[in-house]
TrEMBL record:
Residues 1-10 have a biased composition (Basic residues). This is 23S rRNA (uracil(1939)-C(5))-methyltransferase RlmD. Catalyzes the formation of 5-methyl-uridine at position 1939 (m5U1939) in 23S rRNA. Its EC number is 2.1.1.190. One of its GO terms (molecular function) is iron ion binding. [4Fe-4S] cluster binds at residues 99, 105, 108, 185. Residues 1-33 are annotated as: Disordered. Belongs to the class I-like SAM-binding methyltransferase superfamily. RNA M5U methyltransferase family. RlmD subfamily. Pfam families: TRAM (PF01938), tRNA_U5-meth_tr (PF05958). It catalyses: uridine(1939) in 23S rRNA + S-adenosyl-L-methionine = 5-methyluridine(1939) in 23S rRNA + S-adenosyl-L-homocysteine + H(+). Signal peptide: none annotated.
Length: 479
């Protein structure tokens, strides 16, 4: 949660979305140097204005069409950063934030904007970033969205003991390492939200609370999981954690040690899992603390279902190469649809879990899935995989850094269809430019509102390569 809404570098070029574009000509009031008219939203959700001298100002908490008085808290050569001091004219799409911690907690930075407008903004951001690379979509991206509250199934909370011995549990304040105490969170799933107050009380009862670094919360099919980052063992506190787990019916483990921490379960070791949709029913995805798991289960299901729909029909035995496969979020459903999947991941523990998941879901389905480990930031490794597997379909689901090495390799060794799932639209646009320059065309585009009330967005693009026999009529990009 502390990472939600975190600013990305290069704000001077962050741009203004097409949200409420009719407001773009709005001018700031003359004669009031600190009264500004908000012309649009930057990609990170801040309002964008210009001073009478033409200098750009990014204003936290301001929305398109509003007039505000601001306080500048950071001055740069090309732009200033400010926050709202007084709201003079409010946007019709301004709403009361549902969370009492809004404005202090560094998480949900768009709760003051109506949900439909948040989602239009995210669609506009993807279109604009692609447009900067010379890629025009024929239609707005599809929207994959779910509930506005109670959606987040995993979170990480900081723990701090202050100079007076006070215990703090919560998320980081905006632009700070300071913790904001959280006793309720509107975006956490209810089973995790209900643990916040009892966890705070328990931390206050520990003999060595300074040995606790942070807490990780996770909702699985088997119930809530609490993982404690414990710097040093303390037997008395371990018993307190065990009593807490029994009282609240949760699974509880510790990452124990300062360096090379090891996982130590304080309750019976559970077999944890979650479900993902398949073509003929749900599949079981075995997970463990430390594995990557999408935070929003409802939206993740929509993304997986969309991937299956976009790639349908998959011919029996069609070769699929899934890069950055994790524990099988897309690999398993594609294998269940009849594809022959080679799934590649860099983390050895997740590769092992991926193989186990393939075996666990195979009875009655005859899944064909091979799990491999490789460094996918290394272009040579990707080229070798493409040459060896000879895939008809490639799936990319990289971290925020994107998949530039894989994209360049796919220019040299094109495949009929390429599905790119991204958690950072800027790196997606960069990689899409490589692919379009290499001859690919975008067939489908979607924005997934994975982190509601934040400026973070997930997106999906389906590329096709001309002459492959798979290219559909009327591809949706031109480069």
């Amino acid at each position: 949660m502390a990472m939600l809404g975190k600013r990305r570098p290069g704000r001077a070029s962050s741009g203004v979305s097409g949200l409420q574009g009719h407001q773009a000509g709005h001018r700031e009031a003359t004669g009031e140097q600190d009264a500004l008219g908000i012309r649009g939203l930057a990609h990170d959700g801040r309002g964008v204005a210009r001073t009478a001298r033409g200098k750009t100002v990014f204003v936290e908490g301001a929305l398109p069409g509003e007039r505000v008085r601001v306080a500048v808290h950071r001055t740069r050569k090309r732009f200033d950063e400010a926050h709202v001091r007084e709201l003079l004219v409010a946007s019709a799409e301004r709403v009361a934030p549902p969370c009492p911690h809004f404005g202090r907690c560094g998480g949900c930075d768009l709760q003051h904007l109506a949900l439909p407008a948040q989602r239009r903004h995210k669609q506009a951001v993807l279109e604009e970033l692609l447009g900067r690379q010379g890629i025009a979509l024929a239609a707005s991206p599809e929207l994959l969205a779910g509930a506005g509250e109670g959606y987040r199934r995993r979170a990480r909370l900081g723990v701090k003991v202050d100079a007076d011995g006070g215990i703090h549990l919560g998320f980081r304040a905006r632009h700070s390492h300071r913790l904001v105490d959280i006793d309720a969170c509107t975006v956490l799933v209810p089973v995790l939200d209900a643990l916040l107050v009892p966890l705070h009380q328990l931390l206050a009862d520990l003999e060595a609370p300074r040995q606790v670094g942070h807490l990780e919360l996770l909702e699985s099919d088997q119930g809530a999981v609490v993982v404690v980052r414990q710097l040093r063992d303390h037997p008395g506190d371990a018993r307190r954690w065990q009593a807490f787990a029994r009282a609240h019916g949760v699974h509880l483990a510790r990452w124990l040690g300062r360096e090379a921490a090891e996982l130590d379960w304080l309750t019976p070791v559970p077999t944890l899992s979650c479900r993902v949709p398949g073509p003929d029913g749900a599949l079981t995805l075995g997970i463990a603390p430390g594995d990557f798991l999408q935070a929003n289960a409802e939206v993740n299901d929509l993304m997986v279902s969309t991937a299956l729909s976009w790639l349908s029909p998959l011919a029996a035995g069609e070769r699929v190469l899934d890069l950055f496969a994790g524990v099988g979020n897309f690999s398993l459903p594609l294998a269940a649809a009849g594809a022959r999947v080679t799934a590649v991941e860099g983390n050895p523990a997740m590769v092992a879990r991926l193989g186990d998941n393939a075996c666990a879901n195979s009875p009655g389905r005859r899944l064909v899935l091979e799990a491999r480990q490789a460094d996918l930031a290394e272009p040579t490794a990707v080229r070798e995989l493409l040459q060896e597997v000879g895939p008809e379909v490639v799936v990319l689901d990289p971290p925020r850094e994107g998949a530039e090495a894989a994209s360049r390799a796919l220019m040299e060794h094109p495949v009929p269809r390429l599905l790119y799932i991204s958690c950072d639209p800027a790196t997606l646009a960069r990689d899409a430019a490589h692919l379009v320059h290499g001859g690919y065309r975008i067939r489908h585009a979607a924005v997934a509102d994975m982190f509601v009330h934040t400026s973070h967005l997930e997106s999906m693009l389906l590329f096709e390569y001309p002459g492959s026999g798979r290219q559909a009529q009327g591809a949706t990009s031109d480069g």
